[in-house]
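Weekly puzzle thread! Below is a chain. First person to post its structure in token form gets bragging rights.
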Amino acid sequence: MQSASYKKDKKVDSGEVLVTRFKQLKADIESFKLKPVYVLMGAEGYFLDLISDMFERLIPDDGFKEFNFNVLYGKDATAEDVISIARSYPMMADRRVLILKEAQQFKDWEKLATYIQKPVDTTVLVLVHRNGAIDGKKKWAKDILNGPRVEVFESVRLNENRIVEWIITHFKRHRIKVDSKAAYVLYELIGSDMSRLYNEIEKMVISLPPNSEVRVEEITGSVGMSKEYSPFDLQSALINRNKDRAYRIMHFFSKPPAVEQLPVIIATLYSFFCKIAMFHRLASSGKIRSKNDAFKFFRVYDMEEFIRATKVYDFYKCKQVIHLLHITDLKYKGVDSGTADKAALLKELIYHILH
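Winning reply:
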């Protein structure tokens, strides 16, 4: 959240202050410390949705909500539509709320900027701009973002460490314990989509009593992975150069329905080997000299195993593995795949990594 003199904070990019700003804005909304205009923008839609819902709940469902709450969509709305509603008085209420969703598709910014310079006090106008921030180089954008009565909230994608911390905290809100390994596995299997992570956690906690503890097994089972083997078991076998175990797991994942997990296996291994390659880059530049230094840069499933992997796979081997994973991903998507099926692609991938 920013005040009238909007200036992008570099710290937001790493997620260091995003959650703090979200909490502050939430507190302001709940205590009715409101501005006439809010610009919600950014690549991470999860926080935009939460804040947008909070503004909608400002108007009670007392029979007059249909008169005092409006939603427009950027693709269809004009500046005249927005300004006309924003300047109309609320009915039997202190304020009205107008949300312009999908504002990244809105075309009439210059005209809307004139209203935003002098907004009315009885309307809360919320602009929800998804898939990135407004281009602040344009004059109308500067007028809007630096408007004297405008609050700007930029929702950037959190980095890996912040997402894992958020997962642990969100389980804790439900009085459920989850260790960092299990949280990391959930992140690796679902990815950085906060909405998907939120839905997966909510699905899990429904069936768990308070003070339960979530382990890796519960995470993999919840997202549809086999309790017998997971991509992390395959990863561990490759790290330890345990060919018998690697081939055993490979054959397991070569059969239905486990073979459908090939995209997850590719993504898991790709993420891991990219981290090993990055480790070697940092080590060669003197930024990593010990295992403790590695903790500053990486959050992994098992740090001991990660350090062991850096000794088994040097930077150039990592590049080869990453290339193999890239080719396998392309073939899985139908590029130069020939007659190879999913099982054949997996077998070819594991064979080449081990040899």
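Puzzle host: Confirmed. Bonus trivia for everyone else. The two ends are 52 Å apart (CA to CA).
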